[in-house]
Each structure stands twice: as structure tokens, then as C-alpha cells.
Amino acid sequence: LFDRTPDAWDLDAAQVQLVAEVVFRDPPFGPFDYLIPEPLAPRLKPGARVQVPLGASREVVGYCTSVTSKPASGRPLKAIAAVIDDVPLVERKMLELTRWMSDYYLCPWGQVLHGVVPAGVRGNAGTRETTFLSLSAEGRQILASGVDRSGEKPKKVLPAHLEILRILGTSPRELTPVELGEFASCSIAQITGLRKKKWIASDVRRVRSSSHEELPLARTEPLALHPAQSHALAAINRAIDRRTSATILLHGVTGSGKTEVYIQAIERVISFGQQAIVLVPEISLTPQTRQRFRSRFDRVAVLHSHLSDAERHYHWEQIARGEVQVIVGARSAVFAPAPHLGLIVIDEEHDGSFKQSEAPRYHARDVAEHRALQLGIPLVLGTATPSLESYYRARSGKYELVPMPDRVEGRELPHVGTIDLRVEFQSRSSRGSIGRQLHTAIAQAIAEKGQVILLLNRRGYSTHVQCPACGFVAKCEHCDLALTHHREEQLLVCHHCDFTTKPPERCPDCTFDGIRYSGLGTEKLEAEIKARFPAAKVLRMDSDTMQKPGSHEAALAKFRSGEVQILLGTQMIAKGLDFPNVTLVGVINADTALHLPDFRAAERTFQLVTQVAGRTGRGELGGRVLVQTFSPDHPAIEAAVDHDYAKFVGRELPDRVAHGFPPFTTLLRLIVRGDSESKTREFATMAAESWKKLLEAKQCEHRILGPAPCAVARLRGKFRFHALATSVDSDTLRATFREASSTWKTPDDVQWVIDVDAIDL
Ligand code: ADP
Ligand code: ZN
């Protein structure tokens, strides 16, 4: 890849040319070879951007991925027009990592590179070009002699000019033209005149227009670890000391003190002069998390999504210079250019936000694993509810599993009770979405000066059909997944296999005639709570109310201060929050996630209930959890109630095997969208068939589900279809897709994307 000199060929220097391989973000993606003109050769390194001619009349920006000497072949190459970055945007190891991503995620290399380097870094945000002046050798002579000998006859130099040279020559630092003009009380034109005579030399450099240093925090001391924490730390330290890559899955219940373990492991790598990256879900980048790290380390960079381009650029450069010890950030911080990375930590590794939903559609956990492997350093994955992918890898010996089964300080996990909504509805006394039992519990918690968190996990489109009397949910005959109600067509549709059926008028199980078609949103819930508890202060947190930068922090600060008694929201309130005063957590309807048309629905439900339950019982007051559900005996809910992860996987894994879903297979999701429903469906069908043919030709065991309409069947006016392909043979599955898709002729108004290891179905 780098500086390969062709040793097999014995060539005259004249026949060899220096060639750069260049890739592009947009089609045609490349790679293409370009000639490196002599003067540019010393400046161009792999990982830098270049300006190159493309086609007949265009010049475009591309990424140079390699520089090699090649024998001149028949066809002359076009030449690079300009080198944009004197310092490559990505260094060699990162270039290799992005190439792996390109191959694994079936995403053009140029698109990966574009996605990995922040816009602020590409655009040099927050810096400007500045001219710095200094005395040239000639200028110094003139200043010493006062005589100009450049002409035919020596001439005395004007005193005003000598004064300018003197001020510049005695300045302790380089001056800009404006500064010199001010200090020497002269015009810029006079300075320009002296620069033309070459008495004053100039240099143009980029400088920062502002500083983004955060104020230092008071330092706090390491905590004395509990035995399970010490045991976990020892396992991580062993991996650090072995100086080989290893992945440790830290399976610690909520409140088991995982963060303290990460921090003490990071202290160790810092003592070796190395750096650490800590990835957390975006939503957890609260001031609380920032402070936890900033109060323990001197130089922490926190990369969250509300940074300006200039701030991001500033942090990136500081990290690249090795001036940052710990990088705490969301998904994309996995690419932080730390020069001596010693450890990567991913907290809440099960969280869906680690998968990027646009190109490159990478999963930060898998990229981190690859980066750790490449550098020979450990990766620590921490969670109370491991993703089945990680759990399965641990069980098959790929990861080391380290359990932390108890909360710190001998605190108990909260008691979780279920409320059977079928019973609540039979009594007919309950109206709205909060049953009698939950109402009483909320009233009691507030009366006792505790705080309440209410979770309503409703995604906009989860319009499954449910009987309120018996909990029956309409399911696909083939996939055992909830059918989605299409209001306009009055049909129930399976979003995996396209099975359709008419919605039942009466419940097929209990003949109740009040089947429900639509759920409830956070807004409606807020109104209901305010009506039920007029004296309490209520705060709603969901993606609608938390749009503005800082709104999340502000809301949490209000809750922390005790000003607000009831916090209600979507899954964004389930994660990582540590409020000792929360004595009640209520789940309004645990089934909303359960009946999403997604094979991970049970896993999501288990994770969500377990995580939100973990928000209580964190202080002296203790706490309890009430889960409203139509299916209290669903395995995922039963296991969450018992805080029993083993029970959950014991039920879930065999199901995944039976249906050939991950973690036992690799899953690729092809999404096709277009203006016309029939054309889009037609293309998706053709695409799936051509892929299937290749898979069969390679005798690769596989399954292709669909094409069927996506769960969001129409988005921004476009019809959407998807097909899911699974196989244990990941390489062949991806290779056949690459081959098949290269033959597709995509109509103008149809687009497709491929999502490797898709998690959103
Ligand atoms: P987790 O991330 O596993 O849910 P946290 O790291 O948030 O747990 O820890 C829960 C609480 O316990 C925090 O308030 C933390 O400060 C405290 N804690 C952690 N370790 C210790 C310890 N060894 N001694 C005392 N308190 C601890
Ligand atoms: Zn189906």
C-alpha cells in the first residue's frame, strides 16, 4: 500500500513514474492512478487530499491512498493538479482501518474517508492564513551597515527604512504586517516595498483564531475498589500488560461501578505515556459524564455533537499532537487520531447509537475491535445488558467475560413488579394509559418526596394491532413478527416477508370488539400526567423537546435540583443517569418495543426495561419499578423483572438459531427507494434475485427475506422496500453482493443502499 517499490522489475529510472492512487467520495469512486508531477512529489503523502482532473472538463478533490513507483505503461496518466493537505488528514494506520471498513461495509473507500474526517478538520475550521515577517540575511546586513549595495553604486538607506528593519530585527517574535506597521508607525505599502527588495522575508502559516480550552476542574481521588471491581480491573490490566489485543466484556449490573474501573485502567495506560478513547452513547455525554472524567485526568477532550467545527478541529489537532490523555465521545470518537493509543473503552456497548445510519454504515464496536487488533491494545466493552453479538463472542471464547453481579456499597437492585394491563382494562375503571396501580405508586412517591421517572418507549410508526382485553397482537403467519397497520389501504402487512391480511374486526382470541390500532405518544402522556397530578412539576424529554444544544443538560439539571418531580420521556431517559433521589420508575407500556417488526424486539425490550429499572435504587432511599404490560409472561419481560440476563439469553439464543438470525449469521439489509412504488418494488425484486442466483452458484447457504415494504414504507415521498440476507459465510455474502450489484442498471429515480450488520430493520 505504501511506497512499494517494484523490486521484481529491473527498470531504467526513465521508465518509472511516480503514481498516486486516488479515491473519491462521489461516483465514479475510483481508485484511479494519477501521475505525480516532480515538484509535488515531496509534498504528497498517502492520506492527503489532492485536486485532480476527472473526465473531460472537471477538477475534483480526492483522497490519495498510496504513492508508488510504477513502470510507465502505454496510456499516459493525467497529472495531479494540486496537493491540498501538506499534513495527511489520516495517518497510515487510520488509512488501513478505513480500507478495512470500505471492504467490510461495502462502502467506497472515498466515502469512508470522507465520513471519518470531521468537516471542521477538512475545512481547517477556526484557523486563518496569516503572514509572518522576519529579517532576511540581506536585511540583517543592511541593518548593520546602513548601506544598500545591490545597485551599481552603494546607497545610503533611508532612516525610516532602517527603523522598520530594526524593529523587526529586535522583536522577540515574528510579527504580522499589521503589527509591524503599528510598531514602526509605517504604512503596509512601505513594508511591502521592503519585502520586494527581499530585506524582509515572509512565511504564511495557518493559525488558530480562538482558543477552546475548558477550565480545569478540581481533582478527585480514586475510589477504593470493591472486590468485583478489583477483579475486573485486574483482568483489564493483565490485557494492558500483555500488549496484545484482547476484548474484555465487562458485564456489570446497573450501579456496579463500571466507570471507576474504566478510569483506573485508563490511569494505567496514561502512566505508560499512552492515550485512551472512551465511547459512550451520545445521550450520555452529559455534564455528569464529562465531569467524572475531567475531574480525574488533566487533559480530557470531550467530543459531543454540539461542538462547532472550529472546536472539533481544535480537539482533533490537539489529539493528533498527543496532548490529550483521554478522549470521551460518541460513536465517531473511535477515529480520534491519538498517536499512542493504549486502550479503547465502550460503555453501554449494547446501545444502538454506536451504529451509524448513513454511509459509512459502520458499528463503532466493530471498528474499535479492529483498531484494537491493529494496534495490539485491549478493548473493554461495558454493559448491564450485553448485545447478543458480544455475549455470543464471549461465549465462544473470542472475548473475555468479566462479571460484576452486584451493585456497589451493598445496594440492592430494585424490585421490579409487573402490572397486567389486561386486568387493568377489564376493571374498566382505568382510563388513559396510567393504570390504577401505577397512579397510586406515583402519588405515594411524590408524597414521600421522592422523584419519578416514567418511560414511554414509542417510536412513531409502531402501529401494531393489539387487543386491549387479552393482549393479542396480530402477527405474521411466516415470520412470527408483529404486523404493521397500514391505515390508508386498511391492511396489515409483514415488513419482512410482505405477507398481508385484513385487520380483524373482533379479536380472534377473545372476540373483544375494541381492537386498538394506534398507540400513544409522549405528548399525550404528558397531558394525562398533568391532569392526574396537578401539583407536581412534570418534564418531558424526547427528541422533539430536546432539539436545541444544551436542552438535554438543562432538563437534567432541573431534575437533579429537585425542582421537577416527574421526568417522562422516551428511551433517552433510560440510559446512564445516576439520580439518587429517584424512588420510582414506571414503564407505561413495555410491549411497544416488543412488537416492533424486528427480530431484535425482545432483546431491545429486555435491555430497555433493565436499563430504566437501573435508574432507581441508587441512593439511600431505595427504589422500585413498575412495568405495565399486556404480556407479563413474555420471556423478555420476565427476565428483566428478575434481573436475569442468563435467563433472557437462554430463551433468545435458540430462537435466533432457529430463524438463522444474528449473532449466528451475518445480516445484510438492502434498502431500495424510489418515486414509483411499482418501479421500486420491481428493482428490489430484480436485485434480490440476481444476488440470490450468485449465492446459489457459490453454493453458499443463505436466506433472503423479502423484498417487502420497509417499516417506514414511505419516507419523504419515496417508496421504500428492503430485503434481508443472512448467512454464516459473511465473506461470501458480501462478495456476492458486490459482484451482483456491479451488474445492476439502476433507473434514474431509484436508489439503493446496503447496510452490513443492520440493526434498524
Ligand atoms: P455503572 O456504570 O456500573 O452503572 P457507576 O459507575 O455509575 O455504575 O457507579 C454507580 C455509583 O457508585 C456512582 O455514584 C459511583 O460514584 C459509585 N461508586 C463506584 N465505585 C465505587 C466504590 N468503589 N466505592 C464507592 N462508590 C463507588
Ligand atoms: Zn412475515
From TrEMBL:
Keywords, alphabetical: ATP-binding, DNA replication, DNA-binding, Helicase, Hydrolase, Isomerase, Metal-binding, Nucleotide-binding, Primosome, Zinc
Gene Ontology MF, one: ATP hydrolysis activity
Ranges of residues in domain Helicase C-terminal: 448-669
This enzyme's EC code(s): 5.6.2.4
One example of a Gene Ontology biological process annotation: double-strand break repair
Catalytic reactions of this protein: Couples ATP hydrolysis with the unwinding of duplex DNA by translocating in the 3'-5' direction; ATP + H2O = ADP + phosphate + H(+)
Residues in Helicase ATP-binding domain copies: 239-404
UniProt cross-references to SMART domains, sorted A to Z: DEXDc (SM00487), HELICc (SM00490)
Binding site for Zn(2+) 2: 476, 479, 494, 497
Gene Ontology CC entries for this record: primosome complex
Source organism superkingdom: Bacteria
Cofactor: Zn(2+)
Cofactor note (record): Binds 2 zinc ions per subunit.
Top enzyme category: isomerase
Positions of Zn(2+) 1 binding: 467, 470, 507, 510
Family membership: Belongs to the helicase family. PriA subfamily.
NCBIfam families per record: priA
Subunit relationships: Component of the replication restart primosome.
PANTHER family referenced in this protein's UniProt entry, alphabetically: PRIMOSOMAL PROTEIN N
Chain's role: Initiates the restart of stalled replication forks, which reloads the replicative helicase on sites other than the origin of replication. Recognizes and binds to abandoned replication forks and remodels them to uncover a helicase loading site. Promotes assembly of the primosome at these replication forks.
The protein's name: Replication restart protein PriA
